[in-house]
Design goal:
The chain has one domain: Gcn5-related N-acetyltransferase (GNAT) (Aminopeptidase, 3-Layer(aba) Sandwich). The protein contains four helices and seven strands. Strands 1-2-3-4-5-7-6 form a seven-stranded mixed beta sheet, sandwiched between helices. Strand 3 and strand 4 form a beta hairpin. About 25% of the residues are buried.
Amino acid sequence: MIQLSTDKYISKDSLIEFFEPKNIKKYENRYDVLHHAIKNSDYVVTAWEDDKLIGLLRSSGDYTFTQYVNNFLIHDDYVSRGIASKVLDLYLQEAEDVDDIYIISGRKVTKSFTINWFHHKGFEQITSLDDFHVFRRCRQ
Protein backbone atom coordinates (compact mmCIF):
# COMPACT_ATOMS: atom_id res chain seq x y z
CA MET A 1 0.00 0.00 0.00
CA ILE A 2 1.25 3.48 -0.89
CA GLN A 3 1.76 5.87 2.03
CA LEU A 4 2.27 9.63 1.78
CA SER A 5 4.29 11.63 4.27
CA THR A 6 5.24 15.24 4.95
CA ASP A 7 8.13 14.20 7.18
CA LYS A 8 11.40 15.71 5.96
CA TYR A 9 13.48 12.83 7.31
CA ILE A 10 14.56 10.48 4.54
CA SER A 11 17.47 8.15 5.09
CA LYS A 12 20.47 8.72 2.87
CA ASP A 13 20.22 5.14 1.65
CA SER A 14 16.61 5.65 0.54
CA LEU A 15 17.60 8.88 -1.16
CA ILE A 16 20.47 7.27 -3.05
CA GLU A 17 18.31 4.30 -4.10
CA PHE A 18 15.67 6.74 -5.40
CA PHE A 19 17.92 9.28 -7.16
CA GLU A 20 20.71 7.14 -8.66
CA PRO A 21 18.56 5.62 -11.44
CA LYS A 22 17.39 9.13 -12.41
CA ASN A 23 20.94 10.03 -13.53
CA ILE A 24 20.64 13.66 -12.46
CA LYS A 25 24.21 14.85 -12.88
CA LYS A 26 24.10 17.64 -10.28
CA TYR A 27 23.32 15.11 -7.53
CA GLU A 28 25.94 12.50 -8.46
CA ASN A 29 28.34 12.00 -5.55
CA ARG A 30 26.57 14.83 -3.68
CA TYR A 31 23.85 12.93 -1.86
CA ASP A 32 24.95 14.35 1.51
CA VAL A 33 24.31 17.85 0.16
CA LEU A 34 20.96 16.77 -1.31
CA HIS A 35 20.00 15.15 1.99
CA HIS A 36 20.75 18.44 3.77
CA ALA A 37 18.82 20.43 1.14
CA ILE A 38 15.74 18.25 1.59
CA LYS A 39 15.83 18.67 5.37
CA ASN A 40 16.03 22.45 4.85
CA SER A 41 13.22 22.63 2.30
CA ASP A 42 10.03 24.44 3.31
CA TYR A 43 7.72 21.66 2.18
CA VAL A 44 8.42 18.00 1.49
CA VAL A 45 5.93 15.35 0.41
CA THR A 46 7.06 11.79 -0.15
CA ALA A 47 5.40 8.60 -1.33
CA TRP A 48 6.46 5.22 0.02
CA GLU A 49 5.71 1.59 -0.70
CA ASP A 50 6.71 -0.18 2.47
CA ASP A 51 10.22 1.22 3.13
CA LYS A 52 10.90 2.16 -0.49
CA LEU A 53 10.84 5.84 -1.51
CA ILE A 54 8.84 6.06 -4.74
CA GLY A 55 7.93 9.75 -4.97
CA LEU A 56 9.27 13.10 -3.82
CA LEU A 57 8.21 16.71 -4.10
CA ARG A 58 10.05 19.48 -2.27
CA SER A 59 9.91 23.25 -2.44
CA SER A 60 11.53 26.32 -0.98
CA GLY A 61 10.47 29.94 -0.76
CA ASP A 62 9.10 32.36 1.80
CA TYR A 63 6.02 30.39 2.97
CA THR A 64 3.67 33.23 2.02
CA PHE A 65 4.18 34.75 -1.39
CA THR A 66 6.20 32.25 -3.40
CA GLN A 67 7.34 28.64 -3.39
CA TYR A 68 9.59 27.05 -6.01
CA VAL A 69 9.31 23.30 -6.50
CA ASN A 70 12.88 22.03 -6.58
CA ASN A 71 12.14 18.36 -7.19
CA PHE A 72 9.01 16.54 -8.29
CA LEU A 73 9.93 12.99 -9.17
CA ILE A 74 8.22 9.61 -9.25
CA HIS A 75 10.15 6.33 -9.41
CA ASP A 76 10.03 5.02 -13.00
CA ASP A 77 8.37 1.76 -11.90
CA TYR A 78 5.44 3.72 -10.41
CA VAL A 79 4.66 6.24 -13.17
CA SER A 80 1.03 6.34 -14.40
CA ARG A 81 -0.38 4.92 -11.15
CA GLY A 82 -1.80 8.18 -9.82
CA ILE A 83 1.01 8.70 -7.33
CA ALA A 84 2.07 12.05 -8.79
CA SER A 85 -1.50 13.31 -8.38
CA LYS A 86 -1.62 12.22 -4.76
CA VAL A 87 1.75 13.76 -3.98
CA LEU A 88 0.88 17.05 -5.68
CA ASP A 89 -2.57 17.20 -4.08
CA LEU A 90 -1.10 16.77 -0.60
CA TYR A 91 1.55 19.38 -1.36
CA LEU A 92 -1.10 21.86 -2.52
CA GLN A 93 -3.02 21.25 0.72
CA GLU A 94 0.12 21.86 2.77
CA ALA A 95 1.01 25.02 0.82
CA GLU A 96 -2.56 26.33 0.48
CA ASP A 97 -1.68 29.74 1.93
CA VAL A 98 1.13 30.40 -0.57
CA ASP A 99 0.20 32.94 -3.25
CA ASP A 100 2.29 31.62 -6.16
CA ILE A 101 3.79 28.17 -6.69
CA TYR A 102 6.25 27.66 -9.52
CA ILE A 103 7.35 24.39 -11.04
CA ILE A 104 10.29 24.51 -13.40
CA SER A 105 10.46 21.24 -15.20
CA GLY A 106 12.26 19.58 -18.02
CA ARG A 107 13.16 16.19 -19.30
CA LYS A 108 9.94 14.17 -19.66
CA VAL A 109 7.58 17.16 -19.47
CA THR A 110 7.68 17.66 -23.20
CA LYS A 111 4.88 15.13 -23.46
CA SER A 112 1.59 16.93 -24.06
CA PHE A 113 -0.12 14.67 -21.52
CA THR A 114 2.11 15.99 -18.74
CA ILE A 115 1.60 19.60 -19.77
CA ASN A 116 -2.17 19.07 -19.84
CA TRP A 117 -1.97 17.33 -16.47
CA PHE A 118 -0.32 20.41 -14.93
CA HIS A 119 -3.12 22.53 -16.41
CA HIS A 120 -5.69 20.15 -14.92
CA LYS A 121 -4.01 20.62 -11.52
CA GLY A 122 -4.46 24.40 -11.78
CA PHE A 123 -1.08 25.41 -13.17
CA GLU A 124 -0.60 27.61 -16.20
CA GLN A 125 2.43 27.28 -18.41
CA ILE A 126 4.04 30.71 -18.36
CA THR A 127 7.06 29.98 -20.54
CA SER A 128 9.06 27.23 -22.18
CA LEU A 129 12.52 27.07 -23.64
CA ASP A 130 13.91 23.98 -25.29
CA ASP A 131 13.10 21.12 -22.89
CA PHE A 132 12.28 23.36 -19.92
CA HIS A 133 8.81 24.52 -18.96
CA VAL A 134 7.75 26.91 -16.22
CA PHE A 135 4.33 26.46 -14.63
CA ARG A 136 2.66 28.72 -12.09
CA ARG A 137 -0.32 28.25 -9.85
CA CYS A 138 -1.82 31.33 -8.23
CA ARG A 139 -3.88 31.06 -5.09
CA GLN A 140 -7.52 31.75 -5.88
